Amino acid sequence: MVFRLVLGCGAVGRKVVERFDDRDDTSRDRLLVVTDDTSIVEALRDESIPARDADPTEPSVIENIESPDVIFIASDRTDVNRTALERARSQFPTASIVAYLGGNATESDRTTFDDLADHVVDAESAMVEHVLEGVARPSADAAIGLRKQLSSIDGRLAVVMHDNPDPDAIASAVGLTDIAAEVDVDADACYFGKISHQENRAMVNLLDLNLRNLSPTDSLEEYDAFALVDHSRPGVNDQLPEDLAVDIVIDHHPPRGPVPGEFVDLREHAGATSTVLTDYLERFGLDPSVATATALLYGIRIDTNDFTREVSPADFNAASVLYPYVDTSVLDQIEQPTVEGETLETIARAIKNRVQRDTVAVASVGRISDRDALPQAADQLLSMEGVETTLVFGFRDEMAFLSARSRAADVDLGETLRDAFDRIGSAGGHADMAGAQLEVGILGSTNDENEVESIVSVVEEVITNRFFEAIETQPGTSVGAYTQTSQWLFTIDEGDAEHEESA
């Protein structure tokens, strides 16, 4: 039996502990986590992982622990890890110690870690290797090209996010306006639609981000140049004219058509557009403000699901660059906003109305006033036992909004929703997170509530059947039997649903 002791449990430590606990070959081993983060202790205990709420740097704490075979020192903070390492090595001289360096180490810290630990986990050094290999960051030509393009702008720049922007889009727009200011270009971070998800509103309000909410009726004549962030085509998932001349495009999503723009950076290997903007800030030699750094880190964490989804070395590097400037207390407040009663009601309806086939659950929540409750409901369904893929949808005005989630290895939700709904609306997204929107114009043709409910019932059946069929169909195969029988229900909506406000 091997006894493993974890001192401190930050973002890296938590992932390692969870992965270790999932391994089949450790059933007879012992594990103990010591951290002074009460919320992490409670979460680990809920997962049946032994955890103790105590300061891992306190000598009296480790003195009362029997001698471990392996020690993993895993706080996010370099100073905490250094103190824990020094005391652990003194208390347990024969133990094998693995120590995480943290994101803000000095040369003195590095020397101490090298002297006392058997293995040092240093994310920054790993990133440097990727930089040298040309993997984690773009060439210097990209930064030169962006500076040249910004410098050519004579007038005001509109940095436009996709509709109903998520944290990655918001942070990326703010980052680009900061870079524009460096070359004396006035810029506004702009969006159409609403920021209605609780975490996203908290992010904007707590960081006091300066954003402009555009209306489709607003004149764009005051702007002399346009940039798109976190999406790549005007008129697709924004309300700009499709033929608009675009100066700058920065995105991390694969394009689904020709991308216009004088300067285009589509960095598909990056897990978030915020990662790309962080790289540019560093290339421009700019120290981000606390608000910008906090927003960018939150954008990366949301789009990569805390560095577990479609993550790349560049994302870890960006996080290490940003962390010294981040206000972690504000970040905690952003991540723990109050949940509105209506959101809870939507989640309850999704649970009650779900239709499940094998590991796939689909639920209609009926009429909604806040579309951003849908992804939260989809996440809640996904947490239910025996469920690996979810679709939750609801109706507002004459639109049907859909949100899907999956943790199944053999499901690509973006492709699944496109297969099911692209011919009758717009759909897209990631392999494990996607959305769609369909214009159900027929709902506006009657004021008879009974007739409306009857139509909604038919639409619910069509959406449910299309999704189940698309899940069961091989990629590239047509939707099948429901295509012709249900086509009359919908009119095409030209918006692009590749982005949802909630990750």
Automatic annotation (TrEMBL):
InterPro entries: DDH_dom, DHH_sf, DHHA1_dom, NAD(P)-bd_dom_sf, Oligoribo/pAp-PDE_c-di-AMP_PDE, RCK_N. Residues 158-300 form the DDH domain. SUPFAM superfamilies: DHH phosphoesterases, NAD(P)-binding Rossmann-fold domains. Residues 359-464 form the DHHA1 domain. GO terms for molecular function: nucleic acid binding. GO terms for biological process: potassium ion transport. This is Bifunctional oligoribonuclease/PAP phosphatase NrnA.
